[in-house]
Amino acid sequence: MKNTENKIMVKPYMLCELSNIYGISRKTMSNWLKPFEKQIGFRNGRYYNVKQVTVIFNNLGVPFYMEN
Known about the structure:
Blueprint: E1 5-6, E2 13-14, H1 15-22, H2 26-33, H3 37-40, E3 47-48, H4 50-60, E4 65-66
Antiparallel strand pairs: 1-4, 2-3
């Protein structure tokens, strides 16, 4: 039996990358992150850093990711 589940790496991600991982639009991702803005903090440029991504995964849950 082939294991189709892949692990999500905790690394810097852009908003569009996070929305793709969760399978939602960027606008929906932004709305999901709003309640946690203080915990997440400001992005430095386009990317959320590793600590910020960890906070996002802890609050929203680690997404299930499967390769096509």
